[in-house]
Amino acid sequence: MVKEMERQAEKTAVEEIAIDGFDHVEFFVGNALQACYYYHHGFGFDIVGFRGLETGRRDKVSYVLQQGGVRLVITGALNADDEVAQHVHKHGDGVKSIALRVRDAKKCYETAIARGAKSFAEPLTESDEYGTMTTAAVHTYGDTIHTFIERQNYKGNFAPGFKPIEGKVDGGVGLAAIDHCVGNVEVERMDYWVDFYKDVFGFYVYQYFDANDISTKYSSLVSKVMSNKTGSVKLPINEPAIGVRKSQIQEYLDYYLAPGVQHIAIATRDIIGTVAALHARGIEFLKVPRSYYDSLPERVGEIDEDIEELAKLGILVDRESDGYLLQIFTKPVEDRPTLFFEVIQRKGAKGFGKGNFKALFESIEREQESRGNL
Question: pLDDT of 245-268, one tens digit each?
């Protein structure tokens, strides 16, 4: 029966939209200059590009930050009625666009629209002395969009209209690439968006977690991880599950006032070095009890890292059939308890740290309780 269902699913699956990977993540913020300073000095991003009044842009200002293969764009409004100002007024600072690198933005956009996606921006081709670049965008959950970026014929540092910035180099903390981006949606809407990614993008469910996997005595959630076939883009989708008290997902929805991006996971090749550097820069992380590390050898077996060093930094470990992973989560990085970051190092494991869910959830609940939101 299961094999027959899988065969039927393969027959009905649409052709995947060709996506090479994550291109960048764009934030809409209340003060782009100050947010840029935070990510530069706190997370070690280099500031490599700028667009604003000095480059002829009259409505928005944007800074481009890069570290390894991770690129963030921080955008603020220059007038009160701009879409950025309205977005920030409703949601606070947060992610507007998860941008995806493609080889044919126009085809990706037209395919998505033909399959039922709602247009946010029609294909636009822009050029400067560095070449030509095409972009287009469609709506997803809440006010979040996916932007298709076709840049193989563009040799500039980011995009036409952006001025390169020199001298704002930090050296970084070892952040290497975007591993996955997680979205929170309302109760009983996860499957709607799972079907959206199946039917529009041709993605598939890479992993599924139910309330038995992610729960405490107070709250729980369910999650499905959407992925393209190569695994270069993974987009988990969470929804709250009914519990005794308010879950972290519901807290997010209450303050963001819509579905949106909950966290961005960034991979590193040396999580101990990266997290130690972030601690030294003032980045705050969730904490887990010392007892978590007392039982770690029994649960995950032999690992390369020193357990005492992991305990000192608060790094979690989980083992799977293909290896293990190490991960840690920041506290919310906005005024509202919404967006946060994950730092992850994969040593063979391809999952999402299922064995850490309970410890992580309890850490989040302690933070919720301190805010009066549990």
Answer: 677 888 999 999 999 999 999 999
The CA R_g of the chain, rounded to the nearest whole Å, is 21
pTM of the model: 0.92
Q: 19: how many CB neighbours lie within 10 A of its CB? A: 23
pLDDT digits (tens, 9 = 90+) for 32-90: 999 999 999 999 999 999 999 999 999 999 999 999 999 999 999 999 999 999 999 99
DSSP for 320-337, written as a single string: ETTEEEEEEEBPPSSSSS
Asked whether 200 and 225 are in contact (CB, 8 A), the reply is: no
Could you tell me the two tokens for 250?
């519901």
Please report, as a single letter, which amino acid is at residue 293.
Answer: Y
User: Which residues have CB under 8 Å from 135's CB, separation 6+?
Assistant: 105, 121, 123, 124, 126, 147, 148, 149, 150, 159
Q: Are the C-beta atoms of residues 266 and 176 closer than 8 Å to each other?
A: yes
Tell me how many degrees the CA angle 343-349-353 measures, rounded to the nearest 5.
55
Give the Å distances, CA to CA, from 207 to 222, 227, 237, 353, 372: 11, 9, 11, 12, 32
Which H or E run contains 65? strand 60-67
| Cβ–Cβ < 8 Å for 193, 201 | no
Number of other CB atoms surrounding residue 100 within 10 Å: 24
Token representation of residue 170: 């930090």
CA proximity to 148, closest of 320, 21, 306, 302 = 21
d(CA 357, CA 236): 14
- Domains in the chain (CATH in brackets) are 21-164 (3.10.180.10), 175-371 (3.10.180.10)
Helices (H), the chain: 2-12, 32-43, 83-91, 105-114, 190-196, 248-256, 271-280, 291-294, 296-300, 307-313, 357-371
Q: Are the beta carbons of 244 and 217 closer than 8 angstroms?
A: yes
